[in-house]
Amino acid sequence: MSTDELLNRHRAVMPNWINPLYADPIELVSGSGCRVTDASGRTYLDFFGGVLTTMIGYDVPEISDAVRRQLDKGIAHSSTLYLIRKQVELAEKIAKVSGIPNPKVFLANSGTEANDTALLLATQYRRSNQILAMRNSYHGRSFAALAVTGQRSWSATSLSPVNVSYLHSGDRLRGVFAGLPDAEYIERSVADLREVLATTTAGDVACLIAEPIQGVGGFVAPPDGYFKAIKEVLDEHGILWVSDEVQTGWGRTGEHFWGYQAHDAVPDMLTFAKGIGNGFTLGGVVARGEIMDCLSAISFNTFGGNPISASAGQAVLDYLLNHDLQSNAARVGEVLHAGVRGLNSPIVAEVRGKGLMLAFELVRPGTLDPAPELALRVLEETKANGLLVGKGGLYGNVIRMGPPLTLTEAEAKEGLDILAAALAAAHQQAVTA
Fold first, then answer.
1. How does it assemble (predicted)?
2. What was the pLDDT predicted at 362?
């Protein structure tokens, strides 16, 4: 069956709000290391990893073997009505590396479920449905997760189970805090938080949920130390802080294992997903024990932390730690960041991110006007030359990259050559338009 036939079948039975990338979408049929192959036999260097999910690459024997060992036992599922050894072992390992005091872990299937659970815990613990969230944020596609998402293009409904007040995002390119030095940015953000608490809430706020680096938002981030200052205000009011680490966790930023650690403060809860499963469905919440135990009704997750996903998660975490992939993210990430900055492209307004979490924002030459059409051109050009990248940002004009943490310096330089050619083609389009 041709890719065109598959696309037609996709459009006939799948929702029209699920849109594959590219003018001519591709089907990925195999992969190895940091490379994938499509149905036509074309191979690509993957700098997006299924949206930062294939964290340690494709066809990793340690993961495949762990999953096969569990499959060979004949038990793929039992539910938490029974003890699940792999689930307990994984939870113990995650609790140990979380940095949360007195931690307990709830395992789910996705970042959406993780964030939904964190909101449930916070609202129950605080007996309030008032939430603080960030503008330009994204936290998932469930009813509650959408309610705290601060991007119109991802907000499928205005209906909400929670009452949300939004703080300013970390956007330093545009907006009311544009161009401010770090200290002044943090000072004004704290003042804004105090004003929001005094004016748009009833006082008994449950939590702040925030991404240390906004994923879908285009890898926008506040300065280091921001959340320490913010948490000092939250603590005055007993408000919990939930750090959404779905994209920033597991050493991806290079300098720290978790995104929150750049701020010299510890959240009350953190949520995780994506990379820990390396493609297997796995997510969850780490919370202080008294918060995790606050539910008075019975609750569980049928598939969350099932023996297959938990086996994969353990193998991923062990591989990550044993091979010190955080250090690799720092080292190879610096090659990528320096390489993109060194291109000095007139259509790149800002390069953002940390470690192997890199984005750049495309604008029309000589302006700060967002150029989503140039982002599309870069997507098509990189694909044509054997590189897969992602797209995002409030205006759809940001190229996002989150390659496997196993990426080598040689592969980074290979990708940079392709990016350079793509940016040159996009610039030519901009000046001739």
1. Homotetramer.
2. 98
pLDDT for 70-114, tens place per residue? 999 999 999 899 999 999 999 999 999 999 999 999 999 999 999
Q: Cα dist. 149→163, 270, 327 in Å? A: 12, 17, 32
The tokens describing 290, both together, are 């008294």
Q: Model confidence over 295-310: pLDDT tens digits?
A: 998 888 899 999 999 9
Extract the tokens encoding 233.
């205000």
Region for 54 from its dihedrals, namely left if φ exceeds 0, alpha if ψ lies in -120 to 50, beta otherwise: beta
**Six token digits for residue 30:** 């195999």
pTM to 2 decimal places: 0.96
Q: How many CA atoms, within 13 angstroms, populate the side-chain half-sphere of residue 131?
A: 28
**Reduced to 3 states, what is the DSSP secondary structure of residue 370?**
strand
Quick check: 119 and 268 in contact, CB under 8 A? no
Beta bridge partners of 270: 243, 286
Contact indicator for 411, 386 with CB cutoff of 8 Å: no
Backbone angles phi, psi at 17, to 5 degrees: -95, 5
Tally of CA atoms within 13 A in the half-sphere of 417 that contains its CB: 8
